[in-house]
């Protein structure tokens, strides 16, 4: 597995981990202001509101406009990423991870040509929705680890919508990220906290989660028992996984490790169609990057696969591989980086420059009067 020398912020209080390869770790306790305090203690302004203001926010939250804006941004981002992927393949880019695009394209093409793909289509440059996604979710829900879990982190993509429903309807806490971390960090939802008139399935959409979820802070006391992650392709033996190529699942995992909400033993599960399960060795593990997240279990509509992964899971946020361009696009990482540098008196390393496809800025027009009209598709 490819490694890098650098600086990773781990999940333990007041502790920085200096990485040298994959096995040699040195620990350095940080004394902040004369006392050992949690390095990650800060509050996002949107998370510090009281219950009354949160209620008012929910009353004024326009789900239709939120979905309309989200779909516009998603379409623009996918178009930009598609052009970027073509450029990398045509130029035979040597950028780490560029080789993954050929595998992704083959899977997306197969899902479309065999009509396995489901809306939203086309599935290219998405975590693809597929026929049988609900069956795969049912298999996942039968896992003893899922049944015993109290808090489950699930990605916000369409094929995992049924997993989010089963999480909430099972009385568990659902932890879900803001799409592409555009408007914040994570939100938690519980079925018991929903207004009586709101069906659980509504809270399983991106707009419903944004409206009814409770934003959390980086210093929130949180324990996640199971992680469900979306995938484009997976290796059934090594557990190697490819996402859609934007890297947000890896950042989300790293931030949860930083918070101490998860550790190496936390089970990572993905639900995919059988055609997304590759032949063993199709994803070269020696080319994987240090922040790539492997999976422990794969659930398809027809089978449950327990991988034999030995790929180390990321131990936190690898600042030395996070480009300034990527950092600039994610506000919560900017705040976190500035806070750590201020508290420790140490400047965190920065990754090399990279060319990223441009993304549009959210206008937040959905925080207006309740209601509105839109025929946008919810996921």
Determine the strand fraction and express it as a percent band.
5-15%
Helix content: 25-40%
Biggest sheet: strands side by side, in what order? 7-6-5-4-8-11-12-13
CATH class of the domain at 70-316: Alpha Beta
What structural class do the secondary elements suggest?
alpha/beta
Output mean pLDDT: 78
Structure summarized in a few sentences:
The protein has 379 residues and is an alpha/beta fold.
Key features of this structure:
Rossmann fold; 31% helix; single chain; four-stranded antiparallel β-sheet; 379 residues; alpha/beta; disordered N terminus; eight-stranded mixed β-sheet; 11 helices
Written account of the structure:
Helix 2 crosses helix 8 (206-212) and helix 4 runs parallel beside helix 6. The longest helix is centred in the first third of the chain and has 28 residues, at 63-90. It is globular, with a radius of gyration of 20 Å. Strands 7-6-5-4-8-11-12-13 form an eight-stranded mixed β-sheet. The chain has a four-stranded antiparallel β-sheet with strand order 3-2-1-14. A two-stranded antiparallel ribbon has the order 9-10. It has a domain at 70-316: Rossmann fold. It is built from eleven helices and 14 strands. It is an alpha/beta fold and 379 residues long.
């Amino acid at each position: 597995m490819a490694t890098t020398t650098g600086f990773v912020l781990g999940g333990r209080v007041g502790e920085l981990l200096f990485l040298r390869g994959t096995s040699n770790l040195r620990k350095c306790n940080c004394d902040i202001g004369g006392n050992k305090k949690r390095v990650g203690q800060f509050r996002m302004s949107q998370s510090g509101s009281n219950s009354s203001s949160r209620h008012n926010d929910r009353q004024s939250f326009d789900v239709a406009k939120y979905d309309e804006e989200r779909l516009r941004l998603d379409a623009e981002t996918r178009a930009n990423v598609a052009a970027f992927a073509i450029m990398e393949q045509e130029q035979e880019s040597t950028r780490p991870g560029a080789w993954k695009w050929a595998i992704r394209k083959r899977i997306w093409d197969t899902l479309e040509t065999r009509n396995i793909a489901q809306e939203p289509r086309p599935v290219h440059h998405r975590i693809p929705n597929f026929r049988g996604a609900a069956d795969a979710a049912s298999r996942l829900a039968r896992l003893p680890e899922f049944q015993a879990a109290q808090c489950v982190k699930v990605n916000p993509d369409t094929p995992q919508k049924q997993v989010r429903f089963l999480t909430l309807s099972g009385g568990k806490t659902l932890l879900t990220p803001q799409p592409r971390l555009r408007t914040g960090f994570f939100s938690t939802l519980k079925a018991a906290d929903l207004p009586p008139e709101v069906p659980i399935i509504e809270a399983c959409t991106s707009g419903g989660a944004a409206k009814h979820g409770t934003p959390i802070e980086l210093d929130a006391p949180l324990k996640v028992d199971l992680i469900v992650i979306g995938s484009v392709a997976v290796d059934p033996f090594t557990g190697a996984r490819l996402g859609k190529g934007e890297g947000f699942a890896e950042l989300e995992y790293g931030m949860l490790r930083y918070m101490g909400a998860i550790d190496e033993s936390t089970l990572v599960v993905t639900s995919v169609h059988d055609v997304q399960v590759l032949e063993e060795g199709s994803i070269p593990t020696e080319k994987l990057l240090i922040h790539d997240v492997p999976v422990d279990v794969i659930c398809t509509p027809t089978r449950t696969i327990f991988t034999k992964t030995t790929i180390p899971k990321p131990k936190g946020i690898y600042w030395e591989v996070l480009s300034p361009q990527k950092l600039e696009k994610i506000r919560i990482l900017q705040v976190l980086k500035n806070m750590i540098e201020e508290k420790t008196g140490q400047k965190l390393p920065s990754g090399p420059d990279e060319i990223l496809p441009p993304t549009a800025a959210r206008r937040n027009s959905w925080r207006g009067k309740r209601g509105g009209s839109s025929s946008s598709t919810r996921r």
